[in-house]
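User: Predict the structure for this protein chain, please.
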Amino acid sequence: MLSHHPFVGAFTPPSPYLCGTIKTLKPSSNSNVGPATQINKIKSKSILLPPKASPSGIDEWPQLSQAAVFFGTYAALGLATYPTTKLLETLSQSSIFGLERWRSGVIDSTLPILLGLFYLLGGIGHFAISGSFQDIYPPIGTWGIWYLPGSPAFHVAWTGVVEIVGGMGLLLSGLRDALASEDDDDDDYENENIWMINFVKPVAASVLFVLTILITPANIYMFTHGAVMGDTMAPLDMSFHGVRFAVQVVFLSLLLTLARDSFFFAWGDELD
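Assistant: Here is the predicted structure, written as structure tokens:
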């Protein structure tokens, strides 16, 4: 859930000094200096100050160090997602659930419905407040390594489409399984083409898992450069980024678990 999630073209950024504070000197009170001379002095003394550093301060580091933070964040996501996924696997096999209850109560219905709704709304947001999402897209040259072609609007649009399609796939397949009766299941198994419907859930979960990884640079950009969504959002402190990192780990673990378990359950049904 790149992001947020999860969850991102490129453009040439304006000069950072355009974001600074303009300071001028007040006109001199010296009566011997003419008005034109005073104005020229004021103009010559006007300066543009560079913007303040992000709350993390990483944007002031050397680009090599910034790139290390970029790749380190991805490594940390992987290291944190693996044990969280293993924890979910252990939970599914525990006496609390058991495989049958895990399937019927979590994999078939609850988890795909919740995740599907989240990504569906997130994808709609890519179009409803497109400008805010474009604000957190990293400009060309960020971290000294970001040179992905395409405009921010393009990347915000296609990721939004994927979130909407993937979210709908999870939501509809989850609702289908939640509302299906045993008689419906028996009829489905007699349909030779039903296997395609059964695999919608694992495919959608897999696509959203990959998408959440792909849009992570937007989250990293917010962390390293203090980017925010829109002009009215206040600067985000370090605790926000810590919480969002943990939430992203949970979403990646849930999507990976859903993709794996729903695939094996659907495959098992086909073998039966």
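The beta strands are 22-23, 47-48.
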